[in-house]
Amino acid sequence: MADVSRRTVLTSALTAGAATALGSQAAQASPVAAQAAATPDLTGHDPVDVRWLEGTPAALAAGTTWGVPWPRGALGTNQRFALTATTGEDVPLQTWPTAWWPDGSVKWTAHAVSGDAPRAASYRLGPGRPARPEVAVVVSERHDRVVVDTGTIEVVFARHGQRVVRTITRDGEVIARHGRLVASRQDAADTDDPRSVRYEDFDGTVEDVTVEQAGPVRAVIKVEGKHRRGAREWLPFVLRFALFAGSDGIRLVHTFFYDGDEERDFVRSLGVRFTVPMRGELYDRHVRLAGTDGGVLAEAVRGITGLRRDPGEAVRAAQVDGRALPDPSTWDTRVTDRLHWIPAWGDYSLSQLTAHGFEIRKRTGNGHSWVRSDAGTRSAGLAYVGTPSGGLAFGMRNFWQLHPTELEISGAAGDEAEATVWMWSPRADAMDVRFYHDGMGQDTYEEQLDALNITYEDYEPGFGTPYGVARTTELMFWALPATPTPARFAELAEASATPPLLASSPQHNHSTGVFGSWTPVDRSNAAKAELEDRLDAIHRYHLEQVDQRSWYGFWDYGDVMHSYDGDRHQWRYDVGGYAWDNSELSTDMWLWYHYLRTGDAAAFRFAEAMTRHTGEVDVYHLGVWKGLGTRHNVQHWGDSAKQVRISNANYRRFYYYLTGDERCGDLLRELVDSDRTYLELNATRKIDGSTGEYDPDPRALPLGTTTDWGAIAGAWLTEWERRGDPEAKRRLLRSARSIAALPNGWVQAGTTYNLHDAVFSSGDEKAVAVGSLSSVFGLIEVMTELLDLVDEPEVEAKWVEFCRLYNASREEQAEVTGEHWGSLNLRQSYSRATAYAAVKLEDDALADRAWQELRTGHAGYPDDHDWGTRRIEPPAVLRPVDEADFSTNASAQYGLAAMQCLALVGDRL
């Protein structure tokens, strides 16, 4: 009999336990059914004001979806909601719950309105009977297709094959058809100047279609599949199409996963393409391309302006406006007799290959030269091709931020045009995701640890792979009844570039008790105003650095850098672990709390971009490391430290609840079983010097009680409150109780984790093992939320003990835990732990100590820190930039500490 490892045997035995309970959405009990039985007597709630994040928009991206929290015990599972504009009009509304309090009352709801909803500066949302849309979205499911009728357009989705969208029809006329995914690869990198390159084209193939919502205001169709050529399948994708009642817009959230061999699979192009029927004369076929700041290039396939002979003012004006031209019999015959000599420009390209420049070119057709039309800085990322009787507008959000991108129109002079959104433009160098160096001889753990001491990079051969990382992009399509005027096209481009979003106020959100310890901005006295100024200063600096340092690009946009090199006046983008931040020390969380407190639109968009990036690019979604994220590095996947502290559900929850975004919900769900990744990877291998085959015992895994457990606890907490999952609740509470039962709780040394029952254990003797990073990856925040939800006095007591002792004297530590905790770092960060203990113990002296710890600024920013910036001018730098004595880690932890101290012990300031 072949040898069977202990890991194999016990993993199989566990399949019927935790993995089965948490692994399948279909297996879960309905959260409504799970919670409803516990619903208490409800108090109700007054209507809440919701406002547009950036002010009243001219147009919506088909519609909009947003989230609102509610206090515990206020509203029940079956509560209906009404939305009323301040102008007095009732607004058709669709509502669904996204989280519940432990007592069964609704904690979060998501809401959707359509693009034709009455536009107002603000609205009132509250319990009531929702207005119905004049024409509701209707979804029809058939064996081979799903049909969505918004009342304005009808979209047919194929259940199988390479046509994701069969047709988009308006008023009985096909506006677009054969919506499909297109990609290509090459087997060598352009930058290596290969002598020969082999190219292959792939088409997306549909494997599964799910109706996730079916109206009456919003329908969501989820499509899953892979790109295929012959026998090869790769680049899995998940698409979500959102359609809204009465709207002619379609929002597409596109996610693809890289699962190739980075040494030979170089993605040359990646896009979404529709076929657009072209009707009528060439002079009645129009192209629109969005530029910068509302600019629009408006042209016709066959132009009749600027000719040697004038067809007439009315004719010229109609073509410029995009209207059908008058009967040719009314034109100057010197033009009509010679129309066939005017070139037909059937192909257009708007390529944004860098964040700082786009170029528009056109040509008469394949086999002929491209002619440069115009250029600019940053395109809004929308195009249109069609006629006065209808056409397709198509575009991409964050078009210039996620370069290299392109919008392409081809064949508009023929019977059918092809409209393509290139998320990776074929005009750019092929996507090169290989590791950036050859290892430099780091073949042993000793050599790798030695190198870590100079570049801060934790390298290991084979670990810098991108296999399993993902990228999500948002696209928009409008099936328009006519060629839009430049003004209308500019409105659609703005809606595509920055989809309007409704939001409730910081005051309401805080009043509901969500997200733990925070308060809205408070400048009621000079001391608080000074702190608020500092919080604004560090946030503004990092926000502005994104543009000053051009932190853009397909794989990079949304992240920020870790540390600064003052000698070069440059962030350390090329120095190992000092480069991309990858969520280190909870940068994501800091940005979200800043938004919660301020309600500022720029703060929301900053945090949103980071969530879209860090949740996808910095995390593995396929393969043996699925559920793990990668520590900070020159490349987002480059470091060998693969950890749940980076994939961290605590960082994603904000965006999910504030927007109802289904893709973010996927990210949260895939982390529920992330404790199982410790069967695949020994995270402590370089610390304990482990070599050889990793053969873990599932009943004694090396999973930590702090950074590891805090991240996994966030996933369980979210799964419990989102879906009422009893197994997630069981694992969350059982693991927390087991930690509290350890001799020294969260600082007990020598602990192991039993994957079967989610219990930590150790020896009976008190022993101390504590690090400064223990609680700066969301543990403090998730414990604050958890202890507010459940009555667990033993857990609370042990946690409060930890919070009190971290910054206590060595004598106090030793008195409780048997030995002192050593020379701990990041003491400013832990001032919020002291503040939490002060509240729980009702101890003013501890509250005062918390403020002293914040002011002293150990491993952070002391009171006398320079909070300003200085301008650095060329030739010292490439271009003028601002410089400050800030690092991302210190800013994130200072921000979190200051915000939570204000919330917890602000009265002692």
Per-chain topology:
Elements: H1 6-23, H2 31-36, E1 48-52, E2 63-69, E3 81-85, E4 90-91, E5 94-100, E6 106-114, E7 122-127, E8 138-141, E9 145-149, E10 153-158, E11 165-170, E12 173-186, E13 199-214, E14 218-229, E15 232-244, E16 249-257, E17 266-277, E18 286-290, E19 296-300, H3 313-321, H4 333-336, E20 347-354, E21 357-363, E22 371-376, E23 382-387, E24 390-396, E25 405-410, E26 416-424, H5 445-455, E27 470-480, H6 486-497, E28 502-504, H7 506-511, H8 526-548, E29 564-565, E30 570-571, H9 587-598, H10 601-614, E31 629-630, E32 642-643, H11 644-647, H12 653-659, H13 662-669, H14 685-688, H15 707-723, H16 726-741, E33 752-754, E34 759-761, H17 779-789, H18 793-805, H19 810-817, H20 831-841, H21 844-856, E35 870-872, E36 881-883, H22 888-905
Antiparallel strand pairs: 1-7, 1-28, 2-6, 3-4, 3-7, 5-6, 8-9, 9-10, 10-11, 11-12, 12-13, 12-17, 13-14, 14-15, 15-16, 16-27, 17-26, 18-19, 18-23, 20-21, 20-25, 21-22, 23-24, 24-27, 25-26, 29-30, 31-32, 33-34, 35-36
Helix pairs in contact: 8-22, 9-10, 9-22, 15-16, 15-17, 16-18, 18-20, 20-21, 20-22, 21-22
Keywords:
909 residues; alpha+beta; five-stranded antiparallel sheet; 22 helices; 36 strands; 27% helix; TAT_signal; PcRGLX/YetA_3rd; Tat pathway signal sequence domain protein; signal
